[in-house]
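Crash report, auto-generated. Payload:
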Amino acid sequence: MNPSVHQYLDGCRDVRLTPAEREEVLALEALIEEAAYRLRSEPSPDLVERVLAALPEPAAAPATRNSWGRSLCRVLGWLWNPQPIRISLRPAYGMMGAAFALVLIVGFLARGPLTPAGQPPVAAPDPVGALFVQFRLEARGASDVALAGSFTGWEPSYRLQQTAPGVWSVLVPLPPGVHDYTFVIDGHRWVPDPHAPAVPDNFGGANSRLTLLPPHNEV
Amino acid sequence: VIPQTDAELVAHVLAGDRECYALLVRRYQETLFRHALGMVLDSDAAADLVQDSLVKAYTSLHDCHDPARFGAWVFRILRNRCHDYLRDRRRQLVSLEEGASTAASKENPALDLDRLSLNRALDGALAQLPEAQREAFLLKHVEGRSYEEMTELLGASTSALKMRVMRAREALQVMLREWAGAEGEM
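Recovered output after restart:
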């Protein structure tokens, strides 16, 4: 078979063909088309159900856990997981409370230090050495924004609150170190923090990176 | 917003969302089936191979290092499955032929072809192509892939793939000429 014929069949359309080569091309194209049609015309089965049925089951919940155990887990989970809290307060009560707090603080300071004289005051370290970090995202049109990261096992565990129209925020205690994180908008859009350094997430996307240094007295 | 890209879908599947895997299956099942059918020329076997490959892909999804190229990755799984299937079938055919006393017509494929329709002849001609040539021919002319795509899928150079497609065309042409000649004699 002439190389020009193959070049033409490979898609090189600027090849000059003799009448005999053109005839050969036409015959071969008809043959190829017939072979392709045979394979394309075979109805393709819908394998979705078959494949899903054949997939291994995800790890089941331990069978020994009874309903009491499940209830306890639910309660503990509710206690442990961050929950949105809404507080309504009358401004007058708020002002009274603030004044009362101010009186207490002034009285407390007027008593002098609580520690024995001659000893420097010791700041009580946070039991886990956590630092409180505010995460903030502008996401107009979002109805739900959550935070997932290396510190949550990549579960969107922290739910952000809308502090202004389109502005979402949450305060999270984190230990010093390097943390990768991302925001999850409306349950399925994983969006990195536009104001933080990006690192590849190994899935073709990006996460954000946060580095927290320990407080000075712990260095 | 429903995850759209392969990478997004794979990430959701890895997070435990099996429904996203259904979307990936729906996206690739037809392409995979066409390729498997061209390779094994048996629609039931092709469907089984595609199912098997997609299940294998699910259980090995952590090994998919470039989820944006999930389609190419699952294609390579299917390709290996097809090769295994054809190797097993060849072994079975050889053992059957060894025990058979009449295999006269095997010596001249044209004698078989002259009793078949053109479609059967095409199936027969494709089946006689070496696997590498058949694979390249299918990707080029049935699935309409570019040589660049084929290079990525098969891991061979463009010039090697062009050579395989060329050999496949020539072999098909010769086989079908034999068939046409045999038909004309009838």
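Post-recovery validation: Chain A touches chain B at residues 1, 6, 9-11, 28, 31-32, 34-36, 38-40, 42, 44-48, 50-52, 54-56, 58, 154, 186, 188-190, 201-205 (CB under 8 Å).
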